[in-house]
Amino acid sequence: MKTYNISDVAKKFHLSKSTIRYYDQENLIAGLKRDTNGTRIFTNTSLTSIHTIECLKKTGMPIREIQQYFNLIQQGDSTLEDRLSLFTERKATVKLRIEELEQVLNEIDWKCHYYSQAIADGTEQYVKETAETNQSF
User: Fold this and answer.
1) To the nearest 5 percent, what fractions of the chain are helix, strand and coil?
2) Which of 32, 40, 50, 72 could form a disulfide with 79 if both were Cys (CB 3.0 to 4.6 A apart)?
3) Which residues neighbour 7 within 8 Å (Cβ) at sequence distance 6 or greater?
4) Predicted structure pTM score
5) pLDDT per residue as tens digits for the range 98-120
6) If we measure between CA atoms, which residue out of 65, 67, 56 comes closest to residue 26?
7) Which is higher by pLDDT, 31 or 9?
8) Burial level of 16, CB count in 10 A (0-12/13-18/19+)?
């Protein structure tokens, strides 16, 4: 079984060592062991846990809820539906965020077009008049 030290893991996930230590303190990392000196020894299971933590954090899930997810895992197969529900909710949250970001991107695209046209015209006067007439908030 391949093992990793905290530096390897920090580098692999672009995380600080203190973040990884925090995850350990919060009992989020499965398969984490310590050697006789107390040094953390990470396994592939540990890496999978960290990958999942980072994924859930990117969805905006707070650490406390991530802890609840890992608690569900420890409870076994009786929580499979709860875990599916958790990821279904996260999926909906991410889809909503994507829709919001697409609206933001459309606005940014419009502003890029606006300023490109203003630069081509040598003034923003004509573009501004057109934009004010066609705006729909």
Assistant:
1) 75, 5, 25
2) 72
3) 17
4) 0.80
5) 999 999 999 999 999 999 999 99
6) 67
7) 9
8) exposed
